[in-house]
Amino acid sequence: MNFEQFSQGSSFLHRADPRVKIINTAVLSLVIALCQNFATALAGLLIAILLTIAARLSPKQVLRRLLIVNSFNILLWLLLPLTYGGRPVIDFAGIGLSKPGLFLAALITIKANAIILIFISLLATSTVARLGHGLQKLHLSPRLCVLLLFSYRYITVIHQEYQRLQRAAKLRCFRPGTNLHTYKTYAHMLGMLLVKSWNRAARVQQAMALRGFSGRFYSLQELEMNRKDYLMLTGLLLGGMGLFLLEGALK
């Protein structure tokens, strides 16, 4: 499992200070999520697309992520026009599709794609370790930062352990099906995974305590903002303010 496919690159977004990217991501995603007008949502989507182009990411990988998100949006397009109410604009085989439902489904789709692209172009272009260090520098709770870094580190280990249990079950001729034996086998596998994770967590805690861990991670490379970081921070914050003002003007 690799969650850092987009973190390897040479664009200025890859080199930018993680604190700048975290702040801008929070501001832009919040403004876009709360907007209620198509113009604001489309402007946010345009900003997100420009950031994705600036990050010079693989279009194939980006489109794959967007397909996953839009697979959920399909459900909205199927349900909202039928259930939201309002004046129907399309009548097909006795089924009326409401205009407010179609409007809401389109608005949610635009906002979802814009927010995902912002997260990919800003946050995914940094490693989890740098993001954790940036959160510490922003004075977020140290416990949350440690939880983030440990979760990322050991989710791969837990996945590998689960794959080992799956291979062991296959070697014993286990074939999953819709029967009681399958349910019991998966329950035993999840139970073993929980026990092994607990034991590993206890060993890691003891190892960290022996190495003097005090609840805070330290980086070998100290974060230091330069002129480009300040320009990026100012530019994107102005972009977020522009979206906010546009939303207010259209109300």
What would you note in describing this structure?
By secondary structure, this protein is mainly α. It folds into two domains: 12-134 and 222-250, no CATH class; 140-210. It has helices spanning 12-15, 18-34, 38-55, 59-83, 99-123, 128-137, 142-171, 180-210, 227-250, and strands at 88-92, 95-98. It has a two-stranded antiparallel sheet. A hairpin with a 2-residue loop joins strand 1 (88-92) and strand 2 (95-98). Helix 2 packs parallel to helix 9 and helix 3 (38-55) runs parallel beside helix 5.
Mean pLDDT: 86
Helix/strand/pairing class, anyone?
mainly alpha
How far apart, in Å, are the first and last alpha carbons?
Answer: 45 Å
C-alpha Rg (nearest Å): 23 Å
Tell me how many strands there are: 2
Number of helices: 9
List the uncertain runs.
none
Q: What fraction of residues sit in β-strands? A: under 5%
User: Could you say which overall geometry the principal axes of the C-alpha atoms support?
Assistant: flat
- The biggest beta sheet, please? 2 strands, antiparallel
Portion of residues in helices?
over 70%
Give me the strand/helix succession: HHHHEEHHHHH
| Domain tally | 2
Summary tags:
flat; mainly alpha; 251 residues; 2 domains; 9 helices
How would you concisely characterize the structure shown here?
This protein has helices spanning 12-15, 18-34, 38-55, 59-83, 99-123, 128-137, 142-171, 180-210, 227-250, and strands spanning 88-92, 95-98. It is mainly alpha-helical and 251 residues long.
